[in-house]
Amino acid sequence: MRIRKRHMAPLIHPLTLLMITMLMFTGCAECDRRAEIEVSNKFDILSNSDVPDTWPKGFWRHHTIDDSSLGADGTRFGDINGDGLLDITTPWEQGGIVRVYINPGNKGLKDPWPQVTAGEVGDPEDSFFVDLDGDGHLDVVSACEGKTQSMFVHWAPTDRSKLLNPAAWTTKPIPFNSDAVRWMYAFAMQIDGKAGVDIVAASKYALQIDGKAGIEDSAVLGWFQSPENSRDMASWRRHRLLLGTWFMTLRPSDIDKDGDLDIVTVEEKGPYLAKGYQGKELGVIWYENPAR
Ligand SMILES: [Ca+2]
Ligand SMILES: [Ca+2]
Ligand SMILES: [Ca+2]
Ligand SMILES: [Ca+2]
Fold first, then answer.
1. Distance 59 CA to ligand 4 centre (A)
2. Higher per-residue pLDDT: 175 or 116
3. Residues 6+ apart with CB under 8 A from 78
4. If you measure from the C-alpha of residue 255 to the centroid of ligand 4, how many angstroms do you get, rounded to a whole number?
5. Which range among 35-44, 202-211, 244-253, 265-274 has the greatest average pLDDT?
6. Side-by-side strand order, sheet with 237-243
7. Does residue 19 or residue 102 have the better pLDDT?
């Protein structure tokens, strides 16, 4: 979401000013709201009408799928309703929601898409589709940074007719016995060849936040091991693979063509380096799967 600084102070009618002044001294909730407005007037979020129809002029035309929340982040595709058209899942980091958008097909493609809030979590940075319990219905996993620092599963309704009903979705955290970390990116991959599909996830360094997570071990690439019953959240286990600094995009790919999936990462050099990681080169990196 782009923001721009306002060029002009808003003109305020004298009566409006009087009302605001009166409200400022009443100590009511509306006062707080007014104060928020005063602060937010410093910035103006671009609305649809502010965005040019095409960019560069006359070329690419923009169509908004959803602009109703804040901080849209790692958008990913999947056909969640089985109609052959790719749908979208997007976490809204500042909005604290994870949404699924149903591709309406050619007729409605240029309008806002039908959508459902699959879950409400803090600071979701990434989300992706995966049928985690193997029931034939794609679920959504979200990875959170900020102060939340958790992974969540948003279990999809088994009744497809309820896909757009937020009450039919169930959000559960994946607990892990370790310091919390600021998760940046995650994807599904069968790691151990056992039980269900597992989750590979990576994070970025974290300063101490509310007494959680030090910088020395918070930037990690690791995986969450699915138990036999993936809905038994308490039985999920996390395994660390290695330390890093600030993992960005992750991709599974058999880079060396030996028959197992390796992991491709992009690692940014943050201001803090994890202990034992000083001097390691950062950039586009692939980690070879030791299975073969
Ligand atoms: Ca679809
Ligand atoms: Ca499922
Ligand atoms: Ca597994
Ligand atoms: Ca390989």
1. 41
2. 116
3. 86, 87, 89, 128, 129, 130, 138
4. 5
5. 244-253
6. 182-189, 198-204, 220-225, 237-243
7. 102
